[in-house]
Task: inverse folding
């Protein structure tokens, strides 16, 4: 005789939307996002936290969604690449990735964008070598990284030129 798996009630804010669900304690965050929330931008790659395809933010901190359990985000904020209200930097990164053809198959793109966003926000003075190091935890099998580095450097240059300075409306 088998018994049903215990289930836990969680409340989480995903991309600004409050969500309440019942999940199995062993369900990974990336599975919760993809299957329960319908957000397909985070991918399962290696399931060991190595490839970065599942990268998302939890309370502003970049995490590997395959290493975090859904129950661990109870009461927290999760941000994925699909956020309906992307920051100006995330919007700029998305546009730069397209302009530089920094994506091919797209499998790594969601996690790569989240890693690039972290880099742009926390290391605004990064040079090409720092960008390469900053995204080194995210694997891309298609692009060879040159276009990705170019795209991130374009956004960093725009940021240094004041493109993302807060307007009076944003500062309020």
Result:
């Amino acid at each position: 005789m088998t018994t049903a798996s215990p289930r836990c009630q969680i409340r989480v804010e995903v991309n600004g939307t409050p969500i309440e669900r019942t999940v199995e304690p062993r369900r990974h965050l990336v599975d919760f996002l993809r299957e329960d929330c319908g957000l397909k931008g985070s991918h399962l790659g290696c399931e060991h936290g190595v490839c970065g395809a599942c990268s998302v933010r939890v309370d502003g901190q970049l995490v590997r969604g395959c290493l975090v359990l859904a129950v661990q985000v109870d009461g927290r904020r999760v941000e994925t690449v699909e956020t309906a209200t992307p920051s100006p930097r995330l919007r700029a990164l998305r546009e730069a990735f397209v302009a530089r053809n920094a994506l091919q198959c797209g499998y790594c793109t969601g996690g790569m964008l989240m890693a690039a966003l972290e880099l742009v926000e926390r290391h605004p003075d990064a040079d090409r070598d720092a960008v390469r190091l900053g995204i080194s935890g995210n694997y891309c099998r298609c692009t060879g990284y040159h276009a990705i580095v170019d795209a991130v450097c374009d956004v960093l240059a725009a940021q240094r030129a004041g493109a993302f300075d807060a307007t009076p409306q944003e500062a309020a």
About this structure: Confidence is low (pLDDT under 50) at residues 168-172. The chain has six helices and five strands.
